[in-house]
Amino acid sequence: MPEIIEPFRIKSVEPIRFTTREDRERILRDAKYNPFLIDADDVLIDLLTDSGTSAMSAAQWGAIMTGDESYAGSRSFRRFEAKIQEIFGFKHVIPTHQGRAAEKILMAIAGGSGKIIPNNNHFDTTRANVEFTGAEALDLVIEEGKDPDHLHPFKGNLDLEKLKTLLSRSRDQIPLGMVTVTNNTGGGQPVSMANIKAIAETLHANGKPFIIDSCRFAENAWFIKQREDGYQDKTPLEIAQEMFSHADGATMSLKKDGFGNIGGFLALNDDALAEQARNILILTEGFPTYGGLAGRDLEALAQGLDEVLDPHYLEYRVATVRYLANKLIETGVKIVQPPGGHAVYIDAKRFYSQIPAEQFPAQVFVNELYVAGGIRGVEIGSVMFGRCIDGVEHPADRELVRLALPRRVYTQAHVNYVADVIAEMFGRRDEATGLRITKQAPFLRHFTAELSPL
User: Which residues lie closer than 8 Å to 219 by C-beta, 6 or more apart?
Assistant: First the structure.
């Protein structure tokens, strides 16, 4: 079989700046050992996130030129609305400037002290928006999803028995249930159609709405097509439509599988809930037909939602992640298996076995990665998900580093370079030492935390 190639041509390029190791040591020190605080111009290959970092297509740039900037009822919104209704099928489409705004609006309505929001795994902003209201963000991913070496094809699945037990014990405290596709916190792992259907049936039997956090829905649909019986002959669009047919609503950051640099939405079927959401939207985001976005953004996002469901693109996208994963495995690096759809997740706890979780081994990894090769990744460990209570650090369950590949941005040579730098780090991993946090915010501390070496 011929090698999988990029299903596009490159017609616009952007230069990247090369720095020395001495430069990077100084830059990291000035950034207080937090790569979030490094200027992008000082990064050679940026794998911090796949959110808002995609390369837009010629068709998207062309759509931008046709944007209708009318304050109310623009034709750009109608195109955006129609595309989302075609794919997701929900009655009410409420645009927001990005996914966390949709989460904020939803949790302002559904959250509150004493409430419980179950999910397979909440990612950082979802958890923060739940907890900000005083509610509990409860993770119910299957046990296989907690084992980085397990090859379960759908490690993002929610544990149905745990959900049923929770509903029987705390039914009145649960305003809604969620599932995240793909499961970002757990390694970009997909959720099966059977699991989505069973979650919906369980929640609906208890009178609870079901909301899908759908940031990477197209990648999830592709995994269903590849791995779940009965879906091999269906298109990614058909699979996505079936996924959302079981739900009552969705939140989405269109900065992921919308190929957008900005944008998101909250989509709902319930008229009363949608009216409440629009009232909050007007207070915080803007009029309901633009929701914090320009008309040109809405046009580009509608076009991007068409492109992301192209089978050739999805085959290439997943193959790119698998290629990097295999290169690291050959080196001896432990990762979350099987590789996900948007990123490779390195097990920093096993990479730096000498560094305890309280000294943030995953943060050590992202810092070493930057110094070694000018590459920026993101820590998904105790800086992101741990807690400091009365001055004592309570580590997260896992210490992962996510290398998120922006869509349609880097070539195979870039990926080879990343693998070579990590191989060099692997050879001298015993030399690394831990970190401590010197300054942190009460929520989402990883974005702005300051650290220092021990």
Answer: 182, 188, 190, 257, 314, 317, 318, 340, 341, 342
* CA atoms of 257 and 250, how far apart (whole Å): 14
At 133, the amino acid letter reads: T
Instruction: Tell me the chain's radius of gyration from C-alpha atoms.
Output: 21
> Does residue 338 have a cis peptide bond before it, meaning omega lies within 30 degrees of 0?
yes
Backbone dihedral angles phi then psi of residue 234, each to the nearest 5 degrees: -95, 150
pLDDT tens string 146-177: 999 999 999 999 999 999 999 999 999 999 99
CA 47 to chain centre: 13
User: In terms of residue numbers, what domain contains 325?
Assistant: 21-50+311-453
Pairing state between β 210-213 and 249-253: parallel
Amino acid in position 104: K
Residues 259 and 370 in one domain: no
Task: Say if strands 343-347 and 375-376 run parallel, antiparallel, or are unpaired.
Answer: unpaired
Query: Are 282 and 342 part of one and the same domain?
Result: no
Question: Residue 117 in contact with residue 130, Cβ under 8 Å?
Answer: yes
CB neighbour list of residue 220: distance below 8 Å, 6 or more residues apart: 156, 181, 182, 190, 191, 243, 341
Looking at 289, 307, 325, the residue that finishes a domain is: 307
On whether residue 8 sits in a domain, the answer given is no
pLDDT digits (tens, 9 = 90+) for 76-129: 999 999 999 999 999 999 999 999 999 999 999 999 999 999 999 998 899 999
